[in-house]
């Protein structure tokens, strides 16, 4: 006597579709013949489980079963037939697809993605630019509109029977993959196009206009959907990825959305203070150098950096002061410097050169330690 189908799957009579499917997965995993080789009882339990799910997962059949039980299927419904396990790919594909690729997207293979490296000046990266590029690629064949067929006639693929996917068994796992014969289209070319030899695509150099947004930086990538290689025999194209490379600048160094530059000043400007003009991306601005400024001093100019391509918030500009030693001195300049240097003689000179004094004290301490340890 047949067991109740709900009892077979271990669910209540008001079980939802999701609960039925979950129960079937559990039952199929437990009793599948590949996991129980030679076990007739397990094989019978598996068939019983499969039979129960076939009925209860169909809304119409389930309604009839709830009203009449097994009697409704004893004459031609297939309740007593051997359901076998050739179609387990669907359920096992759901479970293991993400691990073994059985759940990969159905349909024809898309064209390959291609990459292009675009070099930009700092100004182009900061303010944005539109550039024309040329890409050698595989493009859709114009003679056959990408179908690969000279007369537009296509046959059902004999390998996958038009499904675009083939299924195979590996151990306990039933897997599927794109049909290698038709590339997932489910159709094959009867009379190949002479121009593309049935491939639906030909080699050519494609010219494109690429709009680079303001604020991009090294390593940023721009995606142009559908501008990659055309897919084989009319299948979808891939994408084009433009990788940004920014050339070095003669003045500025970029760090994220901030800019850095070195500002040379004369020794007299550093000592006495001055107002100088420094470059920014928006033109020159004034920078006040206070008296007694030392080389390496960093000045921050807010919002004078790069406006972020993502947040649109501007970065800052950092100006590093470099005190420049004068060269090509005239006789008068040399004489003045000699007189100036003479004013640093004696102990009073230490207060005019704090870094020099600290350095000399450190050197003296170092030699004292070396002498005492030897």
UniProtKB/TrEMBL annotation:
Subcellular location: Cytoplasm
Superkingdom of the organism of origin: Bacteria
UniProt GO BP: DNA replication; protein refolding; response to heat
Cofactor(s) for this UniProt protein: Zn(2+)
CDD domains for this protein: DnaJ, DnaJ_C, DnaJ_zf
Keywords, alphabetical: Chaperone, Cytoplasm, DNA replication, Metal-binding, Repeat, Stress response, Zinc, Zinc-finger
InterPro entries: DnaJ, DnaJ_C, DnaJ_domain, HSP40/DnaJ_pept-bd, HSP_DnaJ_Cys-rich_dom, HSP_DnaJ_Cys-rich_dom_sf, J_dom_sf
Residues that coordinate or bind Zn(2+) 1: 141, 144, 193, 196
Positions annotated as CXXCXGXG motif repeat: 141-148, 157-164, 179-186, 193-200
Ligand binding (Zn(2+) 2): 157, 160, 179, 182
Gene Ontology annotations for the cellular component aspect, listed alphabetically: cytoplasm
Domain J as annotated: residue spans: 4-69
Domain-related comment: The J domain is necessary and sufficient to stimulate DnaK ATPase activity. Zinc center 1 plays an important role in the autonomous, DnaK-independent chaperone activity of DnaJ. Zinc center 2 is essential for interaction with DnaK and for DnaJ activity.
Function of the protein: Participates actively in the response to hyperosmotic and heat shock by preventing the aggregation of stress-denatured proteins and by disaggregating proteins, also in an autonomous, DnaK-independent fashion. Unfolded proteins bind initially to DnaJ; upon interaction with the DnaJ-bound protein, DnaK hydrolyzes its bound ATP, resulting in the formation of a stable complex. GrpE releases ADP from DnaK; ATP binding to DnaK triggers the release of the substrate protein, thus completing the reaction cycle.
Subunit structure: Homodimer.
Entry-linked NCBIfam families: DnaJ_bact (TIGR02349), PRK10767.1 (NF008035)
UniProt-recorded name of the protein: Chaperone protein DnaJ
Organism of derivation: Vulcaniibacterium tengchongense
Name of the gene this protein is made from: dnaJ
């Amino acid at each position: 006597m047949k067991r109740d189908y709900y009892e077979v799957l271990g669910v209540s009579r008001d079980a939802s579709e999701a609960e039925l499917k979950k129960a079937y997965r559990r039952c199929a995993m437990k009793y599948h013949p590949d996991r129980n080789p030679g076990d007739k009882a397990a094989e019978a339990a598996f068939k019983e489980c499969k039979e129960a799910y076939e009925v209860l997962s169909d809304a119409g059949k389930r309604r009839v079963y709830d009203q009449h039980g097994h009697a409704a299927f004893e004459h031609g419904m297939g309740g007593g037939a051997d359901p076998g396990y050739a179609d387990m790919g669907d359920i096992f594909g759901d479970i293991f697809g993400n691990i073994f690729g059985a759940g990969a997207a159905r349909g024809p293979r898309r064209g390959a993605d291609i990459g292009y490296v675009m070099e930009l000046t700092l100004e182009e990266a900061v303010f944005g630019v539109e550039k024309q590029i040329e890409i050698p690629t595989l493009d859709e064949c114009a003679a056959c509109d990408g179908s690969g067929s000279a007369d537009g006639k296509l046959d059902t693929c004999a390998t996958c029977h038009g499904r675009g996917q083939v299924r195979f068994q590996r151990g306990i796992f039933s897997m599927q993959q794109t049909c290698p014969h038709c590339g997932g289209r489910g159709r094959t070319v009867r009379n190949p196009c002479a121009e593309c030899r049935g491939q639906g695509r030909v080699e050519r150099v494609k010219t494109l206009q690429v709009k680079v947004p303001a604020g991009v930086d090294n390593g940023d990538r721009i995606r142009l959907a559908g501008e990659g290689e055309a897919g084989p025999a009319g299948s979808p194209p891939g994408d084009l990825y433009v990788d940004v490379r920014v050339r070095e600048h003669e003045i500025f160094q970029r760090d994220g959305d901030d800019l850095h530059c070195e500002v040379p000043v004369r020794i007299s400007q550093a000592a006495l203070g001055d107002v100088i003009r420094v470059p920014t991306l928006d033109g020159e601005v004034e920078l006040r150098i206070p008296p007694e400024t030392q080389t390496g001093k960093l000045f921050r100019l807010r919002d004078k950096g790069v406006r972020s391509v993502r947040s649109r918030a501007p970065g800052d500009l950092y100006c590093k002061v470099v005190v420049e030693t004068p060269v090509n001195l005239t006789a008068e300049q040399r004489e003045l410097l000699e007189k100036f240097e003479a004013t640093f003689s004696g102990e009073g000179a230490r207060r005019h050169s704090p870094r020099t004094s600290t350095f000399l004290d450190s050197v003296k301490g170092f030699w004292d330690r070396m002498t005492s340890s030897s």
